[in-house]
């Protein structure tokens, strides 16, 4: 799971591992990687659409850069075919362009899923920021509204802690109304409660 573009290097690195260490053909390696990588765009601000100078990238990671070049070449072929050799679209969508490696575009090209983190945000990605990509690959784009899933990560995964919280708060309403957890603040300096909490951590 690529959260914003910082971990996008996983795409060429996995391709390198599959082709060089496991002797899998490049086409198959790309297909495998694309089937297992998903990209979450958290914001349309510049830091979430990370770009690297090609000169720096090539100097630090020469083999990875060669793989990125091949990913880009293959992706541009698809863009040209879909958009009837429209050079504006190629400029808008190329991974390598204007002496930069555009990490968000590699994340899109190299994954099976692209999601925003709120309905409005996802619609902006589809209609503005990543419109050309959406037109070409609408099946990749989807929404995952941000939030914490206390029912999964607390109730299901940590029943000891769930029972302890329920006893301390006097009800299990926090399961559907998370702000109820603020009631635990009264136990911040309660030695007995802190011991109970640490025992649960130990048991887990």
Summarize the structure in words.
With 204 residues, the chain is an alpha/beta fold. 55% of the residues lie in helices and 10% in strands. It contains 11 helices and 7 strands. The protein has helices spanning 10-21, 26-36, 54-60, 62-82, 87-93, 103-109, 119-129, 131-136, 150-156, 159-169, 191-203, and strands at residues 2-3, 38-40, 51-53, 96-97, 100-102, 113-116, 141-143. A 4-stranded parallel sheet has the order 1-2-6-7. A 3-stranded antiparallel sheet has the order 3-5-4. β4 (96-97) and β5 (100-102) form a beta hairpin. α1 crosses α2, α1 (10-21) packs across α4 and α3 (54-60) packs across α4. The longest helix is centred in the middle third of the chain and has 21 residues, at 62-82. The mean pLDDT is 94.
Shape: elongated
Strand-pairing-aware structural class: alpha/beta
The percent range for helix content is 55-70%
Mind telling me the C-alpha Rg? 23 Å
For this entry, what is the oligomeric state of its chains? single chain
User: What is the percentage of strand-forming residues?
Assistant: 5-15%
Query: Cα distance, first to last residue?
Result: 26 Å
Q: Going across the biggest sheet, name each strand in turn.
A: 1-2-6-7
Helix and strand succession?
EHHEEHHHEEHEHHEHHH
Instruction: Give the integer mean of the pLDDT values.
Output: 94
Number of helices: 11
Q: How many beta-strand runs?
A: 7
């Amino acid at each position: 799971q690529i959260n914003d573009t910082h971990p996008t290097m996983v795409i060429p690195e996995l391709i390198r591992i599959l082709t060089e260490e496991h002797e899998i053909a490049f086409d198959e390696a790309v297909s495998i990687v694309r089937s297992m990588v998903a990209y979450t765009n958290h914001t349309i601000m510049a830091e979430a659409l990370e770009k690297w100078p090609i000169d720096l990238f090539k100097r630090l990671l020469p083999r990875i850069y060669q793989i990125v070049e091949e990913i880009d070449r293959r992706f541009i072929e698809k863009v040209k075919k879909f958009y009837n050799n429209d050079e504006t679209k190629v400029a808008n969508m190329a991974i390598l362009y204007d002496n930069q490696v555009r990490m968000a575009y590699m994340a899109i090209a190299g994954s099976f899923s692209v999601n925003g983190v709120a309905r409005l945000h996802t619609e902006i990605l589809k209609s503005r920021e990543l419109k050309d990509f959406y037109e070409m690959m609408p099946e990749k784009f989807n929404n995952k509204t941000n939030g914490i899933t206390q029912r999964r990560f607390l109730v299901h995964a940590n029943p000891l802690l769930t029972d302890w919280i329920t006893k301390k708060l006097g009800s299990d309403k926090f399961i559907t109304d998370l702000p109820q957890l603020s009631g635990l603040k009264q136990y911040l300096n309660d030695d007995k409660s802190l011991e109970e909490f640490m025992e649960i951590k130990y048991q887990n």
